[in-house]
Design brief:
Elements lengths: L3 H20 L10 H4 L1 H5 L7 E6 L2 H9 L7 E7 L2 E11 L2 H8 L7 E5 L14 E5 L9 H11 L7 E8 L2 E10 L3 H7 L6 E3 L33 H12 L9 H13 L14 E6 L2 E6 L19 E4 L4 E3 L28 H4 L16 H7 L2 H16 L4 H21 L7 H8 L5 H17 L2 E8 L6 E6 L4 H8 L47 H29 L1
Helix pairs in contact: 1-17, 9-12, 12-15, 13-15
């Protein structure tokens, strides 16, 4: 006969297991299977076609957004992509000065949008995708700057967000051709890194230049931790800042080779609305196991778009073959998207051909700041071996992705796909004439790329020397000097604490360029809705957890029934 104490013990054990499942298991991060995590890369971001995106929301909610678009109010909406509908998603405008510029237009509501699939319903996704940005191709007549930039990053082996073209409607009305971009969040991290559960930062503000302030993370108010907000002490960030500013083993705090590939691509693209520019933003930092990676974001001003207006900080170019030095002519006047829609004056140019951008220095690849004022890039390039590797990657881009044959093939492939959608786009910022000029001919994105490739190769060989005027982003004075091709003495002099040759800390083009017009700022409210998870370790239960809870409850009920039946048999 089984004694009562054994029955009671078994029931107690099952009860303890059930409690453990209920309260302990949900705290562990269960990573999605690779097949599930990557499903949206092909189902949502199909680059072989233009995907249809239909957004439905109440007239009241739409009117509220359009009445005060810069408030970035989040409203409830339903979204259908490729025939698959996701209900009750968070929907809002997005952007910085691009948002305020469109808001100032009298005849345009072509905003960039952000969709948060799990804002109202925890863990709701679209084939694993948590959030989707719909970028309006502001300031880009070609509609390709951002698309091609992410393609280059991927080709260089840098983790980049999934992206593809999407044709958008809102309540049945056509909004036009947008670029759909995966946001950098837990879904992105889980499929691009080993664990994907490290610290993700979106720097913008105090500390985003990564200069040393103190060993107190509270002093770096602009670093903006996006994941593990309740659990991380951010000691890895302080350690990285210490090493790049004060010395140490760089390879122990950053993925050196990956960052060299990243900065080589960004330099080739002349993307100056970035860490390398005066605004020092529009990038992410991700730390896993103590090593940091830099991740690309917001490339609508790449291909020289940010510095296209020129200005007093334009470099001079010396051709060593002719020994002649000429200052560039007057910069082209900024053109307003749409040929004159309000609120855009002086904020960008639709032209790709600008000498200061094409000949942006590869020796001192910063704008609006000295190299020393960007300590992460400085720490990488002051090492001679790293500098050699950086130059190798630049040459690889110039002879590969930016070569006339390859870039022409890529652009032609894109234009054959999107041109019909550009033609029927009722809200586009530029005319078809502007679009065709930006994608074909001698003032196109193809021409920029091929001329940029020639400049990179000429700078690497020493045939082209760029003389830059330096303008500090802190409003300091100017210092003019010649920027020499990289040599062994430059890095060595910096390592010994000597002053670099005049001009080595010079600014590139666009130091007085347009304000930020990107679409990257994300208010905290969008990162966590009424039922959204807080940080990487959310308190909501996954399907696997619910199944385990159900099994435990069944076992517990079974044990109780068994005990009751056993007691009745004994009493009889």
């Amino acid at each position: 006969m089984i004694k009562n104490r054994y029955v009671i013990g078994a029931i107690t054990l099952l009860l303890a297991v059930s409690i453990a499942v209920l309260f302990i298991v949900p705290t562990f991060h269960v990573q999605q299977p690779a097949s599930m995590a990557k499903a949206y890369k092909s189902s949502v971001f199909d680059q072989t076609k233009v995907t249809k995106v239909d957004i439905e929301l109440s007239d009241k909610n739409l009117a509220s957004i359009l009445e005060s678009p810069t408030d970035e109010e989040i409203v409830d909406a339903d979204v259908t992509i490729n025939g698959q509908t996701v209900s009750h998603v968070g929907f809002r405008t997005k952007g910085m000065l691009s948002l305020s510029s469109v808001a100032a237009m009298e005849d345009s509501d072509r905003y960039s949008w952000k969709i948060d699939f799990d804002y109202y319903r925890s863990e709701q996704t679209l084939d694993g995708l948590q959030k989707l940005a719909l970028n309006n191709n502001f300031s880009d007549a070609s509609m390709m700057r951002e698309y091609l930039s992410y393609d280059l990053m991927e080709e260089m082996g840098v983790p980049a967000p999934s992206h593809s073209y999407m044709y958008v409607t809102i309540n049945g009305e056509e909004q036009g051709l947008y670029l759909g971009v995966e946001t950098l969040d837990e879904s992105f991290l889980s499929q691009n890194f080993t664990t994907g559960d490290g610290d993700l930062y979106k720097p913008d503000g105090t500390g985003s230049d990564l200069k040393w302030i103190s060993d107190d993370i509270a002093d770096y108010t602009g670093l903006n931790l996006k994941t593990n907000t309740k659990s991380s002490n951010q000691s890895s960030m302080i350690n990285m800042l210490d090493v790049i500013n004060n010395g140490g083993k760089l390879e122990e705090v950053v993925d050196v080779d990956e960052m060299l590939r990243y900065f080589a691509a960004n330099t080739a693209l002349v993307n100056l609305d970035h860490y390398q520019g005066d605004k020092k933003h529009n990038y992410y930092l991700y730390e896993e196991d103590g090593l940091f990676s830099m991740l690309p974001w917001d490339y609508n001003m790449a291909f020289g778009g940010y510095g296209a207006m020129g200005g007093k900080d334009r470099p001079q170019v010396k051709d060593t073959q002719t020994k002649g030095t000429t200052e560039e002519g007057e910069a082209e006047k900024a053109q307003m998207p749409g040929g004159g829609k309000g609120g855009m004056m002086g904020m960008g140019s639709s032209s790709f051909i600008n000498d200061s951008a094409i000949n942006f220095s590869i020796t001192t690849p910063v704008s609006g700041a000295t190299l020393e004022e960007r300590p992460l890039l400085n720490a990488l390039l002051e090492d001679d071996e790293n500098r050699e590797t950086f130059n190798k990657y630049l040459k690889e881009i110039a002879t590969g992705f930016f070569s006339e044959e390859i870039i022409t093939e890529k652009v032609n492939e894109i234009t054959s796909m999107i041109t019909p959608y550009v033609e029927k786009d009722p809200t586009k910022f530029y005319t078809m004439e502007d679009y065709l000029k930006a994608t074909t001919g001698d003032e196109s994105i193809i021409e920029f790329s091929t001329q940029r490739a020639e400049s990179i190769l000429a700078q690497l060989s020493g045939e082209l020397v760029v003389e830059a005027e330096t303008s500090s982003d802190r409003g300091g004075g100017q210092e003019q000097g010649q920027m020499n091709p990289p040599d062994d003495s430059t890095g060595e002099a910096q390592k010994k604490g000597q002053q670099p040759p005049a001009g080595q800390g010079g600014a590139g083009p666009g130091a007085g360029g347009p304000p930020d017009m990107g679409g990257g700022m994300q208010p905290p409210s969008m990162d966590g809705g009424p039922n959204a998870q807080a940080g990487a370790a959310g308190s909501s239960y996954s399907k696997e957890t619910l199944i385990m809870i159900g099994i435990s409850l069944v076992l517990l009920i079974g044990a109780i029934v068994f005990a009751h039946f056993f007691k009745r048999r004994r009493s009889s």
